[in-house]
Structure formats: C-alpha cells, structure tokens
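As a next step, we paired sequence with structure tokens, yielding the entry below.
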Amino acid sequence: MTRRSLAVTAAVITSIVCALSLGNVLYLYIGLLLCAVLLYGFASCLWARRTAFCHQALSSVSVARGDEAHLNVQAGHRCPLPVAPPKGVFLFNGEASECLFPPAPFCVHERRLSLNACHVGQYLAGLKFLEIQDTFGLFRMRLTNREAGGMLTVLPRPFDIEKPRVTTGDDGSAPLARTQEDYNAPEDVRAYQPGDAMKRIHWKLSSRKRELLVRRFESPAPPDTLILLDCDTPVGGDHLTDGKECLRDALCETAVSVARMQMADGSPVRLPIYGVRANEFSSDSAASLKLLQEMLASQPFGGGEIFARVLDLELRRMRRTGATVIITTRLDAQIVEGVSHIRRMGPSARLYLVTYTPDAKEYQPYVTRLQHHLVEVCYVTPA
C-alpha cells in the first residue's frame, strides 16, 4: 500500500461515518465508489504482479575503461486491466538506477540500459526488481528478479609509452647470430662462413666431411622486463570524489602499457602481483595482453605485501632481468633504497610515480637520490 491508498481508506471510513450519522445516502455512495476504486487498484496490481516477467543479459562481459557496455532487459505482464508503467530498478557499481517499461499487456518490452565503465574493476550489473503499480497509484508491488546479474569487467586501457631501456650489452637483439650464442652449450654444426672465428671450426668433423664445419651454439633467451606494481591502497586523491579510483586506473594502465610495448616485439615480461589475490603474469606474446588486463581488473588494490618488501623480495630475479619498471603512488626512503638496490644489481630501472601533485616538494629529495643512482623517474597524472 501507498500513502495515497491510506488517504483513500480514511476517506471511505469518513464517508461511511457521515452517512450513518447524518442519514445522507450521498455519503454512502461516495464511500462505495472509493471502495470500488480501492478494489480495482488492488486487483489490477495483484494480477499484473502475478503475470509479470523479466529477463536480462549483458551485451559484453568485458569492456575497456571509458567505453560503454549495455544491459539488455526484457519485461512485461499479462494483465488486461490498465496499470501504471512498470518501473525497473537495476544496480551497477553499487548505484541504483531506474527505467520505465510501456504498460501495454501481452507484449515483451525491451530496454537497452547504458553502463558507463568509468573505472577499472569488476562490477555486478543487473536488474534488481520490477515495480508494479496500479493506475491510481494506490498499491505498489515488487517482482524480485531471480536471474543473477552479470559481472562486468572493466579493463585498463593502454596508452603510448616510451620503451624501457634494457641494460647495454644484454638486449638479446644483436643482428649476427654468433653474438647471441652461448659458447658453453654447443648445439650443432654448420658450414663455414667468412668471418667465423678459427677456434670455432670443428677440425675432426671437417677432415671427415672434407669441408670446413663450424660449431653452432644455442642462442640465449632475451632478458626479461620485470614490472613491479604497487598493489597496496593508493596514496592521495582524498580531496576528489573518485580520486582513489582514478589512481588505481592509472596504476593498471601504466603497467599494461609497459607490458604491451615490450611484448610487441616478443620481449618477455614478468609482472608478479603481491596483492590480496596473489598471482604472476609471464609472457612474451602480445596476444596475452588481455589476460594481464583481466588479472589487474580483478585485483582489489588494498592489503597484500608492503611494497618496500616487494622490492626486496624481487632482488633474487635480477640475474635474468634486463629492465625493471617500478609503478607506485608512494615515494619514501624505504622505496628509494629498494629501487637503488635493484639498480645496483645491473638492470636498468625506471620508476613511474602516479600522483596528482608531481611538483610536491617532499618528492624532490627522493627523486634526486634515485637520479643519482641512474634511475629514470617519470610521472603519471591520473585522468
């Protein structure tokens, strides 16, 4: 029941009391008319509620940040009595929105609801309930949607970024095969070519075959690019409505951009995730980029290992690492010390500081120390 139905009920009681006390039949007719209105409203609302139906489906399970997804909702009822337009209430990103369906009976009405994918993450999207109301607004009933809403994954959108510099002499891209060969692992032999070193000639086999044959060795794998992402709660953005979400978007999109740039030419990339959902991404194929996007979108970015400890834990991986990219929203003495240790282990290091205030004075001493250790410092300002 609604407030309007309570008012009508009070009017019915008043009319009957007036009719009995004053002996005027007109008040009785008014009371009976209002009773008929109440009965009609209740009957039409109940009938429409019992015959109502609704179905829903997401147009896509994943979209890039900034794009639009759509929730396709079908609803209707089979009540021949006139009722108010049914109202659907659907949820996305914890916020409720409403949409109206035509009241025509015995029809399937479809609505295509837009879902604005503003921030990276996984969000439940779906129709919560369908609200039925009679044409007088006296009664209101709800049909709860039994179909579970779909999970929409908003993926980080990569942007153009400068390719990280790999340590000189360890880039694995020398044009001549012999500069890539591991002399401790002979693999096969091949015909002699002008310019080959004499010590590589297989003399015994050459004498048997009566031609010069040269030992061929295995080519070492190219060095890895290690991406260290701060999966703790982002620092900053408290003065903005969605400041934390924008910082998280920038963290994820910077990591995806670095990985895309490296994997474009087949360079291996490793990205360990020390967040609440611990995981690790390792690939050298650009086709794996969507997997990385989904892994980052499912990460809640809160809790997990302290980032300064993550830098210490990853020191053991530096032997096969040619470049290290550190992405964080915080910069303090412990992080500076950890990054400096990584740089001293040999690989090149680049730090992306995601912040709204790149010119803050408290960052300058730390940036100076990093640059003193030949660490490249870049700033990323969230959109």
